[in-house]
Please model this.
Amino acid sequence: MRFSPWLRLGLGVVCLLLTRVAAALPSEGLFSKTNLVAWCIVPFDTQKRSPEARAEMLERLGIHRLAYDWRTEHIPTFDAEVAAMRKRHIDITAWWFPAALNGESKAILECIERNQIHPQLWVTMGTEPEANATRLEQKIQAAVESLGPICTEAQKRGCTVALYNHLGWFGEPANQVQVIELLQKIGHTNVGSVYNFHHGHGHLADFERHFKTLKPHLLALNLNGMVRDGDKVGKKIIPLGTGDEELRLMKIVQASGWRGPVGIIGHTEEDAELKLRKELDGLEKLMANSASSTKSAGEPPASGREAGLQVEKDWVDNRWQRSEVGPFLASSVRLPDGSSVVRGLTVRVGHQASAVYDLAQGSVRAVWTGGFLKFDATRFGLIGTPVPEGTVLWTSEAQRPEKAAAVRFLGQHHTPDGVVLDWEVQGVLVRERPEWVTTPGGPALVRHLTIGSRTAPISWWAAGHLRGRQFTTDISEEHSASQVKVGTSQVGTESVHVLHLMRNTEATVASAVAVLGEQDLHLDSTTREVSGVPQSSSILTLKPGAAVSLDLVLWRGATNASAEFDRWAKAQKSPGDSGAAGPRDGAIRRGHAHPSV
Model:
């Protein structure tokens, strides 16, 4: 059979259009048609469709899930709605539900039980804001009391209850999670949340954090076109693909691994079919414009494209920054002073502080607060070196090669009290747990050390100090004796506190190393020039002896605060001391995870 050229051209155009749609919408997965739920298409439909007409419309669109939003006039047709959807194999995934067990609730529950369906019951309450902590707690408890009986009735019928974020205090993810967890504590395990983009404009700036909070309890998600302050500028509900924020939010959801039903909404006074077509077209546009949205979480944006068509931006991927890398990460690190730690191990040493170790020399090269690491998105983060994220408090120079050669990094492991690092220093095993502490003179880094037995002296580079052409140094020691009861005998012990303090010539900044430990140790100062600039370092030396524990405290701050730090350091107990009745105020915490050799 022969076709005219115009017919062949027309068939070609149709094929191209079909190909575009097939490529834009995934055949399965989070944003596929099989996972889409039509929501808010009953009372807002200007065509006022009957249950049968509504089911026909959804079948035409290829949507096979419905979240049923009803009004009082629809109660008599509840059974007809279920029958019409069942006839066309459309699942009633969710059902709008009152916030109390009343006559309307009873009609819904009876219909569900009669027809043996098991939808999610979407419930909202508390649309007013609440800034007062006491009143908020009261409202949360009242919500638990109201929702408990609903959860019980839902459980009897094999249904779940989903808290609907319709603005106000009840729409805040943290409050919803608190309600859910309180319900779970009293035995209601069939409760979760449904999150609506169009009620989440206030969460745009920090959506990833809010979503992470809600994700373990999330039962469904409803999409919407999103712009900043859309709820304030008349763009609260706009079609998908017409905003500039929804794709970012969708990528966060997809990258999280969450997999649940996804709603597209009517919710405007127009023909529901036309509105749903706008949503489908917008979703196709978003999928077509974002290669990463239609690929697996680990697949790069450039995957599947001809190499000759790829440009540099196709290789920009910032998933490293969005990843939970854990309490430590081995990598090179570029410091703000221009130097780099080639063999670095960055460790979280508190809720707000991080430190990077130079594994080649066993030293701390930098400490900062406010974050962990900031990754370069260029070339998937493989080209650019990570840098500290936050405020760098201090950095130190690399150690002399001859000193570094005596230190070997063995590995690290995580404990409830933090990360523990294992070193071999001149053949002796050393274990360390870093901790960030607060002192009257400002914050300090404590290196809790347990050092194995030694048959010969060992030296270890304790810390580098300030850069400067001129500086002054002080070394002080303070011995203290105590009596420790062992069984029925009193045993005398002696500990020593050694402090190495350095100030710059202008007397504005000071650097200190304090050692809290046994008597057989020595802290020495050494100086060398780096590019003509003197660099001061502290060298820790331990005499032969049995295994010991000591604390190495690194501090840097204003010179006028150094005296306060000095007094604080001298007031601390050594790790081996146990004669005191209890810890002093501001004492260093030593948990059960302090490593022993």
